[in-house]
User: Fold this.
Amino acid sequence: MTAEIRTSDGELLSVKLKKVERRRRTTAFLLAAPLLFFIVFAYVIPIFQMLGRSIDNAEMNSFLTETHEVMQTWDGSEMPGEDVTSTFYYELKTAVENKYHGKIATRLNYEKGGFTSLIKKTSRKLKNFDENANFLDQFIDVHKKWGDIEYWQALKRGTDAYHFRKYLTTFDYEQKFDGSIERIPEKLRINVTLWLRTIFVAVGVTFCCFILAYPISHLLSVLPTRYSNLLMICVLLPFWTSLLVRTSSWMVLLQKQGVLNDTLVSLGFVADESRLELMYNMTGTFIAMTQILLPFMVLPLYSVMKTISPSLMRAATSMGATPFHAFRKIYFPLTYAGISAGSILVFVLAIGYYITPALVGGAKGILISNRIAYHMQQSLDWSLATAMATVLLIAVLVVYWLYNKIVGIDNMRLG
Amino acid sequence: MSRLTKLISLAALLVAPSMATAAEVNVVSWGGAYTESQKLGYGDPYQEMSGVQVNWIDYSGGLSEIKAQVESGAITWDIIDVYARDTIIGCDEGLFVEFDFDNDFPAGVNGMKASEDFFAPMPSDCAVGNILYSWNYAYNTDNVNFDGSYPDSMEDFFNPDKYPGVRSIYSSAMSNLEFALVADGVPASDVYDYMEDNGIDRALDKLTDLCTNPKGGCIFWSAGAQPPEQLVSGEAIMATGWNGRHFNAIVNEGSPMKMVWDGQILDYEYFVLVKGGPNQEEAMKALQYFTSSEGLAGSAKHIAYAPFRISSLDVIMADEPWFYSEQAGAVEIMPHMPTAPANTENYVLMNPEWYADNNTEINDAWEAWKANL
Amino acid sequence: MALPKYTEMRYRVWHYSYLVICTAVFVFLIAPLFVIIPLSFNAEQYIHFSDGMLALQPEAFSLRWYEDMIYGTKNPWGIAARNSVYYAFFSTIGATVLGTVAALGLSSRYMPYKQLIMSVLISPMIIPLIISGSAIFFSLAKLGLAATFPGIVIAHIILGTPFVVITVTATLSGFDDSITRAASSLGSTPTNTFFKITLPLITPGIISGALFAFVTSFDEIVVILFVAGGDRNLTTIPLQMWTGLREQLSPTIMAVATCLIVLSTLILIVTELLRRRSERIRGISAQ
Assistant:
């Protein structure tokens, strides 16, 4: 029989140990807690709230609550009855008095084009309405579009408190009023092009970064410290330099009248009239992004390669492997961790890139982030912007999850 | 720890002066030569007269920024210089103050009351007229060799086979659609009738031909200062733009450029007063001065835009040569105005209602077109 | 990197082409930065190397764009620089304190839900800035903090903390626990141990995390585009550069860019000194 071990104050050791452990757990958690709460409340929750905007239409619903309710009994197969039109008339009247009919017009216009002018014209004429006569006829008198049933169907749909249609728009699809889902007319398609372009650029830039980073990371890892420190400046100086400085340096280089074209012309490689179009297209975006993201590939690769002992390769060659064979079988597999870390870092950064494409890419070189920013800041269609942001976020989280699976976040290193 | 506290309080002290508030008004306009003309023409005189500081902020058009400010509850703008389209949209959405026109704005020096002195009716209750300007195009006379023949019509702008080289066009649909239809043979006065009837597609097809032609090609400008700069640097061989900016580049900077007035678009520009702006009362007073007969005439001293008041034109004509700059000296300005008879032989009158009503459709079609180039 | 004498011809060729490739990549990395510097001393208004500059004639160079940067009225670089420093200073303090404390907790063996919490704390670094920018803007707007000084500082603290957490955790992961245990067995209180032993050892990590946070705030452009909301008094250097670059490349921007390159060189020197110091203290080679 084993005697129970007690501590000096007479408590059971196992109990005491558990207590100590619990206290340590609490201490550890309390240390992380301030930042955790800060990030959760100031960042994570706002992100979810923002994503909610992609399906939220509550404001519109509150503008025309009664119309929406009355319309629930209308099946949309023929023109709405007086119950609907009269309710709509009174609610629109309130809207005009309180000056939010402009918002109604803007929102409904997302459902069906032409609503802006329709609501505006109707609002101006509203004071001439005879409240005892047939409302539908008077609406049609004001604007013949009210005779088109689709506008009433759009009104019904546009006042739902929630909708998922923006996710269709994200992929250039639309829901017709009969419920069927179709692709939008070819001339209006834009988002799928941009998604594909974004993925292409992100994958392409990641691959180019890998191709360019591998040899120099290797060189940096085998050179004596004196030299490698010097060469490391070439990687670290761009790394620490402002993104806008680096983007502007590419603008200087790539412009039609820029340094690169000037040099090519003065060397006689290119005629002055036919200077190369290096900017305001995909070429510009691609080149600039590769250079800007390259350090993010070099640093993880370098830190992995630094740990590989040169004797491994020597051993392999001494046992008869050709240098190429030794590289493929021994060295390369040892750098997998660095490759995956660097690739996923570059890929995640590239897929959300915004500034460089906007400045260097022109109309032809923009990516999906620029489209999100456009809807955020220009068209102000925030539900569409947030729907696209949600899709982008999911894509990034999937990659992040993979990264975590393969490498582990704990192993993330910055230089 | 105490050292840190000291540091923070020191920093707080340094921040403090920037938060001190004197009487000021934040006016948002289009930057470059145009803002300069406004500043010299009525901003600085008003500041001297009233002691209220007038801050000029640059933007590149559109209502998105002010809408975002209103949405976020942090409004920092007082007066905005906007397109007619945006006075309509913004007024409908309740962003701007509605004016009681004849009470809010002074009569002209000729004695006419404000609503009659401004030579066109306001597009909305929130707008007060500012200038009449033109969208036209210019080319670089030095940089390119057109073999002795120079472009002189809107068709030439869209004919890269005859005049090869990159064109710089506005980054939104406005002006481009009109130019394309005129170049495609639509009579200038009927442009908007055609727009209703599949005209957008027709215009975009015409633009596609220009921008995808290997001898042509398009770049886009978004700030008014860009077109002359792109012409001078050689990034573009022809560029659409605002006549005052072209004029400024030619007269003040001596740039080798020439404007083509065929197919020009005449357009009005307006001021609006932001509802709930930080200095709404001061801003109203400033606006009254800006849009007075002398105020509007004042800006024409520095740029070739026609003032919106009849009385201001009288002031100018009585005192020609009215325009003055250090580089160019005194210049007779009336022949350079977008309204001068020689410049209005074939012109489109901008229809802001059409833009306000069809804003979303136009933008969607335009953005998709641009991305699929 | 000298090759042994017995190396075969084809490996020699391979070796030298490898060196050429590496040189090309290094040039690709660094050359764009050096193009900017001479152009900022251009006497002309256009962004290209004039014949005079190529012939190294002194009159082709001037400091006029630096004068324009300091005294010019078109862009408020002075306000922008002051704001950038303030935002960076305050957000660095916030991010460093919060991040370091959290990293101490996260490095403990007893930390519950370590993986999950780490993921949440690092998320601002992973999630595309355009999404972060919009989300932070909406939430600050709701609190009435959009387009205000504290609002921008909060936004920058959020973006800066992941870097501090990562660098400090990395430093702590190489930390030998037996040192603190030795200290307590010798009668030191936990607080005393922390300030006398732990803190000095992890200081290089904290400073390099703080540097990251500083640079993140100082160079930040996407989030501030949303959060600053057109207020000229809140503008920063990157915001001014962004506005300027969207219009036209001006020599003044080249001058500002040159100043920023000098700044990043200074940061590079500081980080290098830190690395050496940390190597010396811990007597181990850098990771």
Chain A touches chain C through 90 residues (CB under 8 Å). The longest strand of chain A covers residues 173-175.
